[in-house]
Write a structure and sequence with these properties.
Blueprint: E1 4-12, E2 19-27, H1 33-41, H2 46-55, H3 74-83, H4 89-96, H5 101-117, H6 121-133, H7 141-145, H8 148-156, H9 162-169, H10 173-181, H11 183-188, H12 193-202, H13 208-224, H14 226-236, H15 242-248, H16 254-261
Helix pairs in contact: 1-4, 3-5, 4-5, 5-6, 6-8, 9-10, 10-13, 12-13, 13-14, 13-15
């Protein structure tokens, strides 16, 4: 017989201040993706369900075309992910295959938690491999940003980083974004070469979401090594998209930002 447990979760609804106490009784060894979706649906907000498709650009030809939403804000998704932190990988796979954005994000939050709590190299490799093999379902900017630098970053810190260069050169917006945002973990460990190298690959990318991501990582790099950032800007100023340049120097003093934008490096 499976052991049973009862957990009580108090969820504070974002921006409303309303609390709901939920009691979930289930078996640790019998957790299902359908239970996760059911929990998410108890937290739906009709206004958010209407707003999110516009915010995440789901119209024809937009980057999030076809994505669907239940209407659950991220703090409540995190609460559900915590509730189901032991969900098996095969059930996380079902979440990632869901057409609903919140199911995929919650699945990724669970996956990140499991990676961070893994106690053996083999367990971490299993989760890393799972993430990479399902990266086609990490298919919006928030899904990328909440997961890649927390799974691929730590795993590749002391390993060959060729998977990131393959992602950088792939004909896939989200793999391109994964390749640069993953380097956030390296930056935090004073390791800057991969950020510069992938930044060079993506510097003339056509999409605004890559301009923002590269600029963001360059800004983070510049906080720790300003001369390296300035060297990148001097080499690439004339071909960097304006958004990428603005993001990279966002923390500079106003007069210096103006000078750099005008090409006076």
């Amino acid at each position: 017989m499976h052991s049973r447990f009862i957990s009580i979760t108090k969820v504070t609804f974002a921006k409303t201040g309303l609390d709901r106490t939920r009691i979930v009784t289930t078996s640790r060894s019998n957790l299902k993706s359908s239970d996760v979706e059911s929990a998410l649906r108890t937290l739906t907000n009709p206004q958010k369900a209407e707003f999110f498709p516009r915010f995440f650009r789901t119209g024809p030809g937009d980057y999030g075309e076809g994505d669907q939403f239940i209407g659950v804000v991220v703090p409540n998704q995190r609460a559900v992910a915590k509730q189901f932190k032991e969900l098996p990988l095969n059930e996380i796979e079902h979440l990632l295959e869901s057409p609903f954005h919140e199911c995929r994000l919650t699945g990724l939050l669970i996956l990140v938690s499991q990676f961070e709590k893994s106690k053996t190299p083999s367990a971490r490799k299993r989760i890393y491999d799972f993430y990479v093999s399902h990266s086609d379902r990490v298919n919006n900017w928030d899904l990328v940003d909440c997961s890649c630098h927390k799974i691929m970053g730590p795993f590749l810190l002391e390993r060959n980083r060729s998977p990131l260069f393959r992602f950088a050169k792939a004909k896939c917006l989200w793999k391109n974004r994964i390749s640069i945002v993953t380097t956030y973990h390296f930056i935090r460990h004073e390791d800057f070469d991969t950020t510069i190298q992938i930044g060079e690959i993506l510097v003339e990318h056509e999409h605004d979401l890559i301009h923002k991501a590269v600029g963001w990582m360059l800004r983070e790099l510049g906080k720790k090594n300003r001369p390296l950032l300035m060297d990148f800007l001097e080499r690439n100023h004339d071909k960097m998209p304006r958004t990428m340049l603005r993001y990279s120097i966002e923390k500079f003093p106003p007069a210096e930002r103006t000078a750099i934008l005008d090409g006076r490096l």
